[in-house]
Write a structure and sequence with these properties.
Helix content is about 30%, strand content about 10%. It has a 3-stranded parallel sheet with strand order 1-2-3. The N and C termini lie far apart (about 50 Å). The mean pLDDT is about 90. It has a domain of about 90 residues: Transcription Regulator spoIIAA (2-Layer Sandwich). The protein is α/β, with parallel strands linked by helices. Helix 5 links the parallel strand 2 and strand 3.
């Protein structure tokens, strides 16, 4: 009797989900100010989810919304695990995710690798030693 491979026994997964996406990219800072401070934010995005969906979009792609010293338009990320407080916080982002998912919309965040801020804890640790576990996070 022939052995079954993991691939042969794994459940079938529809990996074509992305082929029908219509993606709306959001630069949060300039999208819509929802809290009245003059800077676009997650509140503003949440207010416009129905509008974005009415355009035929079924996905949102956020340009970086992480905390950043803003020396490189937010691409100099200081903390990959949080939201820039000018845009909201993780609790608000979770609500935005839930609201988008209720509409059948997917949400993507820009993944900016090897481009963190010099204020990022990972980078500061990486600079200490070639033996530091964070050193391999970067291409030197």
């Amino acid at each position: 009797m022939a052995k079954k491979t993991a691939a042969a026994t794994a459940p079938k997964y529809d990996n074509s989900w992305y082929k029908d996406l219509v993606v709306y990219q959001i630069w949060c800072r300039s999208f819509k100010d929802g809290n009245g401070d003059g800077i676009g934010d997650l509140w503003g995005v949440m207010e416009e989810l129905d509008y974005i969906q009415s355009l035929g979009c079924n996905a949102i792609w956020f340009s970086p919304i992480y905390p950043s010293p803003q020396a490189d338009y937010g691409y100099d990320i200081a903390d990959y695990y949080d939201i820039n407080p000018e845009y909201g916080d993780l609790k608000l982002f979770k609500k935005l995710l839930d609201d988008a998912h209720k509409r059948g919309m997917k949400v993507f965040m820009d993944l900016v690798v090897n481009h963190s801020s010099d204020e990022c804890e990972w980078f500061q640790e990486a600079c200490k030693s070639r033996d530091n576990p964070y050193h391999d996070y970067y291409i030197w």
